[in-house]
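input
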Amino acid sequence: MEDYRARNAGRLRLDRRVAIRLVEGRLAEQEVELERLRAEVRTLRVEQSRVRASRDAGASSSAQPVGGDLAAGGVATLQVQVEALRLNLSRMEGRMTTFQDSARDAEAEKIRAIEARVQAIADLEFLKNRVLKKRREQ
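output
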């Protein structure tokens, strides 16, 4: 019985380790995606600043370039892209939080299941010892 318990406990630990590695892998993927989005937002902000600086330099000049409307349109496009990326970033952060919560819940559930299995094994061990004691008494 102890041999069974040792084998079973090892398998339970292995199952838990595999589940934890899977959760950690998915979390790492989410973090990579989040960093990619942050880098893209930074790039767009730099581009937006550059376009604004270029537009401001053109506005201070007495002769407004013909492409001024084009630059303003470019800034508007960049602003829309930045807002879209911020929204996407916010959604990703929300999904990461949800994922972390569900991973935490899954981990707690696995721990409860392992504890229940350990308790069942202990109960079986107790019953086995009781039956063996009664057989010896007979």
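quick obs: The domain at 2-137 is CATH 1.10.287 (Helix Hairpins).
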